[in-house]
């Protein structure tokens, strides 16, 4: 582990995330809505929004998963990070988060609800990003991708699916 990664894990109080990497929830809105009436795919009373820090290093990946909410990614520091998104129609989109906008990197990227997605570092090193969800994230809305099921559905993305599952 490089010293900067150790420092970030310690000072930001990050913990291992089930999909890979490290995270900590930094915000959960005190505003709630009755999701049963407004958004039936979100049962019960739900927070309007939430945010986390998320850290990957070296060859670590964020494994393919999907959630029921839109997720906005924010780049903070480190190496470029590729967010790999498989849309419901099977289209693959690779979004490079990073500081070099002249090379097509971006500071923010949106993954819409229901897409399968994961992330990997383009050049090793580390990347500290943030993720904001609307409505607020709950683990009951989180689904980890199963390799065999994803390969049946999208065989054209075999290399990526094998890398991120």
UniProtKB/TrEMBL annotation:
Domain (DUF985) ranges: 7-144
Pfam families: Cupin_5
Record-linked InterPro entries: Cupin_DUF985 (IPR009327), RmlC-like_jellyroll (IPR014710), RmlC_Cupin_sf (IPR011051), YML079W-like (IPR039935)
Protein name: DUF985 domain-containing protein
Source organism of the structure: Desulfoluna limicola
Upper lineage: Bacteria, Pseudomonadati, Thermodesulfobacteriota, Desulfobacteria, Desulfobacterales
